[in-house]
Amino acid sequence: MMRKIVPDVISGQTLVTVKPNDTARAIAKVMHESRIAAVLVTESDALVGIITERDMTTRVIAGSLDPDVAKAKDIMTADPDTLHPDDTPAQAIKMMIERNYRHLPVRDGDSLVGMVSVRDLYAIYNLELEEDLKDRNAFIYGENYGTG
Fold it and tell me: Taking the CA of residue 2 as centre, how many other CA atoms within 13 Å lie in the half-sphere pointing to its CB?
């Protein structure tokens, strides 16, 4: 079975977005309260950027920016690469490895659908390994091996 980003990796996500003029401190609070490591920056419902924990660390803290002054538009990765809902987990992992990403927005045309993290992909990878092992055991030991 060929899995797709939507619905196999993510589905029904509640997107957490911020605006370009939100402060770094406000964004950090949103990330903390939502228990997430990345937020999407939108303007009129259009994706304009992404901010990750890494951006906060390298651009705000290490960059000695005042979190009450620095704006999303100053610290975000503008016009980020995105995935399509029909992309596969393998395509997502390949892009993440090649470009050193941990999060990728998912967009269907101009509509934001969600965000995939490396953790989401790891969970799918583990599921696929478990399914493969069950299939191999069924083949080697018989269809009902390990059930009961």
Answer: 5
C-alpha–C-alpha distance, residues 58 and 1, integer Å = 40
Q: Which domains does the chain have, with CATH numbers?
A: 5-141 (3.10.580.10)
Q: Please say if the pLDDT value at position 113 is more than 60.
A: yes
Query: pLDDT tens for residues 58-70?
Result: 999 999 999 999 9
Residues 103, 52 contacting (CB under 8 angstroms): yes
Handedness of CA 19, 20, 26, 29 (dihedral sign): positive
- Average pLDDT (124-145) is 75
- Calculate the CA 19 to chain-centre distance: 18
Give the confidence band of 143 by pLDDT, cuts at 50, 70, 90.
low
Find tokens 């987990």 and name the residue: 89
Give which of 128, 131, 122, 114 is closest to 93, Cα–Cα: 122
DSSP code for 87: S
